[in-house]
Amino acid sequence: MNETDLHYPPDTCPFCSIAAAFPFPESARLWGSGDKELLARSVPGEEEADKVERTEPSSFVVLRSRHVLAFLDILPMVGGHLLVTTRQHQVKVADMQAVESREIGFWLPLLARTVSHVTGVSDYNIVQNNGARAAQVVPHVHFHIIPRPASMPEIKNKSWAMFGRGQRDDLHDEDGKKMAGDMRRVLREEVEKELEKKAARL
C-alpha cells in the first residue's frame, strides 16, 4: 500500500462518529410509497440537531438520511461551507454502493440550493477529492459545497491542499448552530417543493 493512500478504520473516522451520533430514525428504504414521510424525517428536528456536543468536535448536522449525511465543515473556507458524505465508511467515490450514489445524487441539488439560499450567494463550487495526492484529508468519501461570494478570503496555499487545518478558522458553536438551523429550515422547504414536482408528474 502506498503511504499516500493510508486510511484509518471507521472506528476512528470523524465522519463515522457523526453518522453514529445522528442515526436515521427509520429502517425502511428512502424510495417508495413512504417518500414524503421519510424525506421529511431525513432532516433532523431542532431538538435533535442542537445537541452538537454528541461528537467531539461539535457537529452541525443539516441532513441525516438513510445513506447520506450533510453537516457544516468545522474549518470552513467561507460561511455555509457544507460537507455531504456517505453514512457508511467508503473511502473514495469508486467505493460507493449504487444506493449511496443514487441518494447523494438526489440530495446534492437540494443541498446546493439550500446553501445558495441561506448564504445569499448564487455561485458555488462542488469539490470532491479522492486520495491523499488529490488533497483528500479525511479518508471518507465526501463532497464540499463551497459558496463563492464576491469577496473571498485570502488563501495562503493556492492549491486544493487548502482543505486542511492551518488555512481556515474554526467554526464557532453559536455560528454553526444558527447556520445549520437556517439550512435545515430551507432544506425542508426544498423537500416539499421536490415532492410537489413529483406529485405533478404523476
From TrEMBL:
<dbReference type="InterPro" id="IPR036265">
    <property type="entry name" value="HIT-like_sf"/>
</dbReference>
<dbReference type="InterPro" id="IPR001310">
    <property type="entry name" value="Histidine_triad_HIT"/>
</dbReference>
<dbReference type="InterPro" id="IPR019808">
    <property type="entry name" value="Histidine_triad_CS"/>
</dbReference>
<dbReference type="GO" id="GO:0009117">
    <property type="term" value="P:nucleotide metabolic process"/>
</dbReference>
<protein>
    <submittedName>
        <fullName>HIT-like domain-containing protein</fullName>
    </submittedName>
</protein>
<dbReference type="GO" id="GO:0003824">
    <property type="term" value="F:catalytic activity"/>
</dbReference>
<feature type="active site" description="Tele-AMP-histidine intermediate">
    <location>
        <position position="142"/>
    </location>
</feature>
<dbReference type="InterPro" id="IPR011146">
    <property type="entry name" value="HIT-like"/>
</dbReference>
<dbReference type="Pfam" id="PF01230">
    <property type="entry name" value="HIT"/>
</dbReference>
<feature type="short sequence motif" description="Histidine triad motif">
    <location>
        <begin position="140"/>
        <end position="144"/>
    </location>
</feature>
<feature type="domain" description="HIT">
    <location>
        <begin position="48"/>
        <end position="155"/>
    </location>
</feature>
